[in-house]
Write a structure and sequence with these properties.
353 residues, alpha/beta, 5-stranded parallel sheet, binds 5-amino-5-deoxy-1-O-phosphono-D-mannitol, glutamine amidotransferase, EC 2.6.1.16, Glutamine--fructose-6-phosphate aminotransferase [isomerizing], transferase, cytoplasm
Length: 353
């Protein structure tokens, strides 16, 4: 059942290229086939979710604001109920792999009561979320057994790319270009999976530590949060993710030989300042592991280790970097002999509030 893999988590990470293909073929023909009626008359989007799905929301907010020019907020589903009521012009988008997470379902019910339209992005046909929502979009990740969400997270990002491009008013030529790259993502991810030796090597080192800090900027910020969540969930290493600019405001105090830093470095307008952050971290004696483009030579001057991923349009780095960080978490946990598919104290779907 594990298809020759030692754990479901590794098997499921390896299913990612197929999952991207399946999710794309669900909603992408010559054009994006998503029916966007959920967006009619909408003045703002509020995303709600928990855990990894919450991180997908944070990434989705960047896409939507950047390319579709709609203002977006992200709320933990468990906190949504304490905030201002959405209006009839609000679209609430809930993201939930299982479609059964109690807090997310409750947030959806409350959103509807307050007059908002609700769209859910879920992986499970006929789940409770699909029955509450006004609109449903499916990820085609297939069953996910490992408690740690991996392939389903990437599928969520794919749906978010498609929604964003569907709603976007960018010039047609740009859209065509992005869709072309999106279709290449399965191949791109395969290349990451095929070149995992360096990740395995770095994992052997990270496995010796008890604290890790993950950093990134813009879309790399939530990628860092998700990388850290995956690491703590399966390896039990205390890992925290921060937007890189926050380091100076407290976490700097933790830097030093005992706290390696994992940085997501994207070749866009955040590149120079991230490089600077990496130098600052290095100067405080932390080991630095950087996820970077395979063409980036500059980074080698400052990083102790570089995890190379294929170069893509920066918005797709959320996929490439996340897959690399999932593998990093997996191999680190394996090195520490953890019960990877069923981490202690955790359930695959959290059906109590
Ligand atoms: O099924 P959902 O997407 O609603 O689940 C939300 C979280 O419980 C889930 O993502 C959790 O954080 C994962 N175990 C993370 O790997």
């Amino acid at each position: 059942e594990k298809g020759g893999y030692e754990h479901f988590m590794l098997k499921e990470i390896h299913e990612t290229p197929r999952v991207i293909e399946d999710t794309l073929s669900e909603y992408l023909d010559d054009e994006i086939t998503i029916d966007a009626s959920f967006a009619f008359g909408v003045s703002e989007i509020v995303f709600v979710a928990c855990g990894t799905s919450y991180h997908a929301c944070l990434i989705g907010k960047y896409f939507i604001e950047k390319l579709a020019d709609i203002s977006a907020k992200v709320e933990y589903a468990s906190e949504f109920i304490y905030h201002q009521p959405p209006t009839g012009r609000t679209l609430v988008i809930s993201i939930t792999q299982s479609g059964e997470t109690a807090d997310t379902l409750e947030a959806m019910r409350i959103a509807k009561k307050r007059g908002a339209k609700v769209l859910t992005i879920t992986n499970v046909l006929g789940s409770t979320a699909t029955r509450i929502a006004d609109f449903v979009l499916y990820t085609r990740a297939g069953p996910e057994i490992s408690v740690a969400a991996t392939k389903s997270f990437i599928a969520q990002l794919v749906v978010l790319y498609l929604i964003t491009l569907k709603l976007s008013h960018i010039p047609r030529s740009e859209k065509v270009e992005l869709l072309k790259e999106l279709r290449l993502l399965p191949e791109v991810v395969k290349r990451i999976l095929d070149s995992k030796e360096e990740i395995e090597r770095i994992s052997k080192l990270l496995a010796k530590y008890e604290n890790l800090i993950y950093i990134g900027r813009e879309v790399g910020g939530p990628v860092a949060l998700e990388g850290a969540l995956k690491m703590k969930e399966v390896s039990y290493i205390h890992a925290e993710g921060y937007p890189a600019g926050e380091l100076k405001h407290g976490p700097f105090a933790l830097l030093g030989e005992k706290t390696p830093v994992v940085a997501s470095l994207v070749r866009d307008h955040t590149y120079e300042i991230m490089l600077n952050n990496i130098k600052e971290v290095k100067a405080r004696d932390s080991i630095v592991v950087v996820v970077a483009d395979e063409e980036d030579k500059e980074v080698e001057k400052y990083a102790d280790f570089v995890i190379r991923v294929p170069k893509t349009n920066p918005i797709f780095s959320a996929v490439t970097h996340s897959v690399a960080l999932q593998l990093l978490a997996y191999y680190t946990a394996r090195e520490r002999g953890c019960e990877i598919d069923k981490p202690r104290n955790l359930a695959k779907s959290v059906t109590v509030e």
